[in-house]
Specification:
Elements (H helix, E strand, L loop, with lengths): L6 H4 L34 H6 L15 H9 L3 H7 L5 H14 L3 H7 L5 H12 L13 H4 L4 H7 L1 E7 L2 E6 L5 H11 L2 E6 L2 H28 L5 H6 L8 H16 L4 E6 L4 E7 L2 E6 L6 H11 L11 E9 L2 E12 L2 E9 L15 H11 L4 E6 L6 H12 L6 E5 L10 E4 L8 H8 L6 E4 L5 H12 L3 E6 L4 H10 L4 H7 E13 L4 E4 L3 H6 L4 H6 L12 E4 L10 E12 L2 H8 L4 H10 L5 H10 L5 H7 L5
Parallel strand pairs: 2-3, 10-14, 10-15, 11-12, 11-13, 13-14
Antiparallel strand pairs: 1-2, 4-5, 4-9, 5-6, 7-8, 8-9, 15-18, 16-17
Helix pairs in contact: 11-13, 13-14, 17-18, 18-20, 19-24, 20-23, 23-24, 25-26
Bound molecules: adenosine-5'-diphosphate, magnesium ion and zinc ion.
């Protein structure tokens, strides 16, 4: 319905503007007003907008508050305003007014029905005139938890929907943002300050359906769950191969939890039994928040259901188990890696969502600083040697490796991976799922790879001497080997490998580069503001002209330096940050670095040399992202705490 407007139509001179090109012209009804007869009083703008969808059941418009009263003195009537905008002409207005008189509908609705303007035209105009933000709800996913703050019948009666809550401020999308009665109602009901924004009636109707549909779905589920009764003992449920009718709500709940998580871009789902409650949390952009708390007595049933879905043994409740679920959510096939762990109040289940379509495999898009990317690419271009990606769990290592493999995956190379688990399927890559319980360890897989004529080998992780040794040997016999290690930074990784029992000379001859990484939260683009750093902060972070030169930011100096933060808005759900990006340090094995390692140099010695050889440290890379407004100073501190 929202036709793109030709820009010149917005700035068109008053009156006389032709009908918008491309809009179908309705047949013209007779025009009683044509003879210069006095026109009937036109409704004021807010009413007109409010009535676009013919929401007649609205209470009469309350007296505008002092603030809007000031505005209304200057306010144009809807018809005039549309003419001024060049969206309609005098003739169309007269037609509409005539029709309006006959039908008793509001002018806005009539014009929309005549196809001379769209709802969006009117609402946008309204938004401009009233200086109330317009929100396009058509792509907006409304949180059922927020929607629930206002009862459905109230929301429907006033044609509004709550879309966001930050502190005690509730943002409400309204068809008629000047409906003070409705606003007062809601403020009383919720004890929250209402901030009105305007949206089209069609969008609001649809949002009402979606949001309260989801609320109803969830409420019904919870009710059904209560009905199951707690007499369904653990034993009964563990016998369930087939599911009885009592399980329908459990199945729906499990499906809802997963589909909601997938649609919201959640990375992990936690299902946690405690003494008095069952808690379900989602991790999104690295942060956990509570999604729902189903009745505690549903715990056993939910656990059993998820175990069945993951092909796990439902009778086994004392030992940890790992499984996998493959399901279709909104036409996408989603893989879930499931881990079940006995805890004192039951079994905790964590599901990692592996959304094939969300995999970023383009090295350019991960967030490497330009220079660092060059260094990394030079490493993977090497025909043999070992390349190590390090960092804590969740720092994006697997993503980096898959991206590197994708760029190496060509018809003239045999690419083989040993993984536990295989997280994403890469077409053209020979991926092996390791099974340590039957002896298929990383080391065992690697050993047979060597008889499979590989060019590139990826090993999920190096944890022990055996894997380290064979990976290094493979890299010294003409293969490019990629792997990960759980260490904090690149320089410290050398010590970790030698501690596993690998000789320093093996490290210096095989290692091409060691990369360390973290993920930082990005400042929300929609509520970003600038902060002038204090002089002592500049000192504290060691920002010198020399550093700025190394960061390739020669235009920044102490006077114009700025940092950024998010205030919190609808886009970012009030958190001030949205999405994440990687920060990387890439340490290349240079001749001088080799000498230092062979001479038993400390991690500090190694780091000093690496920086001298052109490495940007994790902290420096993060700082660069803060200086260019991608992340905040807080994130720099968070991810490189105590580090370098
Ligand atoms: N450069 C990046 N930018 C944004 N998100 C990323 C990046 N790298 C990884 N992620 C996301 O972070 C999460 C953890 O990544 P993963 O590669 O599995 O980490 P690890 O292997 O270190 O545990 C995944 O959801 C992934 O999509
Ligand atoms: Mg990983
Ligand atoms: Zn924001």
């Amino acid at each position: 319905m929202s036709q793109p407007l030709p820009p010149n139509n917005f700035g068109a001179p008053n009156g006389g503007a032709p009908a918008r090109p491309g809009m179908p012209q309705p047949p013209r009804p007779p025009m009683p007003n044509a003879g210069g007869m006095p026109q009937p009083p036109r409704p004021p703008v807010p009413n007109a907008g409010g009535g676009v969808a013919g929401s007649q059941a609205k209470p009469p418009l309350a007296k505008p508050a002092a603030k809007s009263g000031r505005r209304s003195s200057k306010k144009l009537r809807l018809g005039d305003a549309l003419i001024q905008k060049g969206l309609i002409n005098e003739e169309q207005l007269s037609q509409a007014l005539a029709l309006q008189k006959k039908s008793g509908k509001r002018l806005g609705s009539v014009l929309v029905e005549m196809h001379v303007v769209t709802e969006t035209d009117i609402v946008q105009l309204l938004s401009e005139q009233l200086r109330i933000p317009f929100i396009d709800l058509s792509n907006y996913l409304i949180d059922p938890v927020i929607a629930k703050l206002i009862p459905e019948h109230v929301a429907k009666r006033h044609m509004l929907i709550p879309i966001n809550k930050v502190g005690n401020k509730l943002t409400v999308a309204m068809v008629d943002p000047l409906n003070i009665l409705a606003i007062d109602d809601i403020q009383l009901m919720t004890s929250l300050m209402v901030k009105a924004v305007v949206a089209t009636p069609t969008d609001i109707k649809k949002a009402l359906q979606d949001a309260y549909g989801a609320v109803a779905q969830q409420d019904k589920l919870m009710d059904d769950l209560e009905d199951i009764g707690s007499d369904a003992s653990d034993d009964d449920l563990s016998q369930l191969g087939d599911l009885g009718e009592n399980d329908a709500p459990i199945i729906r709940l499990c499906n809802l939890v997963i589909s909601q998580a997938v649609q919201n871009g959640v990375s992990d789902i936690h299902i946690e039994p405690f003494e008095k409650e069952l808690r379900i949390r989602y991790r999104q952009d690295g942060v956990l928040t509570t999604a729902m708390t189903p009745p505690k007595k549903a715990t056993a049933a939910i656990t059993s259901r998820l175990k069945i879905m993951s092909s796990l043994n439902i009778a086994e409740k004392r030992l940890p188990q790992d499984g996998r679920i493959k399901i279709k959510v909104v036409n996408k096939t989603i893989d879930l890696r499931v881990s079940v762990l006995p805890v004192i109040w039951g079994e905790k289940i964590v599901m990692r969502i592996l959304d094939q379509s969300s995999l970023r495999v383009n090295l350019e898009e991960l967030g490497f600083e330009p220079k660092t990317l060059e260094r990394f690419k030079a490493g993977i271009a090497s025909p043999y040697g070992i390349l190590l990606v390090t960092g804590p769990t969740g720092s994006g290592k697997t993503t980096t490796l898959y991206s590197a493999l994708t760029s190496l995956n060509s018809i003239d190379r045999n690419v083989m991976t040993a993984e536990d688990p295989v997280e994403y399927m890469l077409t053209g890559v020979n991926q092996v799922q390791c099974k340590p319980d039957i002896g298929l360890t990383f080391a065992a897989a690697l050993r047979s790879f060597l008889r499979q004529d590989p060019d590139v080998i990826m090993v999920g992780e190096i944890r022990d001497f055996e894997t380290a040794e064979i990976a290094i040997k493979a890299s010294m016999t003409g293969h490019l080997v990629l792997s990960t290690l759980h260490t904090n930074d690149a320089p410290g990784t050398v010590g970790r490998i030698t501690n596993m029992g690998i000789e320093p000379f093996m490290v210096t001859t095989s290692v091409l580069l060691i990369q360390a990484q973290r993920l930082v939260r990005k400042v929300c683009k929609d509520c970003k503001y600038e902060i002038k750093p204090r002089a002592e902060q500049i000192g504290q972070f060691g920002i010198t002209p020399e550093l700025l030169r190394r960061l390739d930011l020669p235009h920044i100096n102490e006077r114009n330096m700025l940092f950024y933060k998010g205030k919190g808005c609808e886009t970012c759900g009030g958190s001030g940050s949205k999405g994440r990006v990687g920060v990387y340090e890439v340490m290349i094995m240079t001749e001088r670095l080799r000498d230092i390692i062979l001479n038993g140099g400390s991690t500090d010695d190694i780091r000093r040399q690496a920086i001298e050889d052109g490495m940007l440290s994790l902290r420096e890379s993060a700082l660069r992202k803060a200086l260019i407004g991608m992340t905040s100073l807080e994130e720099v501190v968070r991810v490189t705490m105590g580090g370098h």
